[in-house]
Amino acid sequence: MTYAAPVKAMQYLLKYAADLDDVMSIPAFSEVNEELVTDILSGGAAFAEDILAPINRDGDLTPAVLQGDNVIASPGFKEAYQAFVEAGWLGLSAPEAIGGAALPSVVSVAVNEMIYASNMAFGLCPMLTSSAVKAIAAHATEELQQAYMTKMVNGEWCGAMDLTEPQAGSDLGPVRTKAVPNGDGSYAISGQKIFITWGDHDCAENIIHLVLARLPDAPAGSKGISLFLCPKYPVNADGSLGERNSFKAISLEHKLGIHGSPTCVMEFDGATGWLVGEENRGLACMFTMMNEARLFVGVQGVAIGERAYQGALAFSKDRVQGRVINGEAGDPIIGHPDVRRMLMDSKTALMGARAICMATAAASDVALAHPNEDFRRKAHARDALLTPIAKSYGSDLGVEVASTGVQIHGGMGFIEETGAAQHYRDARIAPIYEGTNGIQAMDLVGRKLRRDGGEAMKSMIHDLKSIVALASSTSGAPAKALQTGINTLESATNLVLQADELDVLSVATNYLSLAADVISGGLLIKAACKGKAAGDDLADNMMAIANYHAHTILPRAQSQLEYIQAGSSVLFAMPLDALSDL
Question: Residue 183 above 70 pLDDT?
Answer without folding.
Answer: yes
